[in-house]
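User: I'm putting together notes for a lab meeting next week and I want to include a structural view of one of the chains we've been expressing. I don't have a solved structure, so I'd like a prediction I can at least talk through. The sequence is below, exactly as it appears in our construct file.
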Amino acid sequence: MTNDRKPDFSGVQSGASSVPADGVKPTGGKPDFSNVVSGADSVPAAQGGAGSLGARSYTIEKGDTLSAIAKRVYGKASYWQRIFDANRDTIDNPDRIFPGQVITLPEIEEAGEGRAPPPAEA
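Assistant: Thanks for the context. Below is the predicted structure for the 122-residue chain, given as structure tokens.
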């Protein structure tokens, strides 16, 4: 199942511009993404999203492998098997994943803490 809809960034404003029409210069110099509308369906907090440590969605990108995703997200490449097990309905062969596939990154309990580690910075 692939989602061909793309996010609409047409209303995004950058703080790097000079002075906007209202004459008030933006502060902070960071882009304002508050009005970005995603084409994707909303994801419940328990399945991903900002601050979530539970299961979440991930879209496979060119060059990805399950072990590379596991290393980046959980800090251990050996967790690739857990990702594969959570996505057997989507992935037939762990060595054959394709850009655009949407998979679930499962919550992985580590050392009895009862929650997955936060996603690593990409």
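A couple of points you could mention at the meeting. The chain has two domains: 1-40, 45-105. Residues 66-74 form the longest helix (9 residues).

User: Perfect, that's what I needed.
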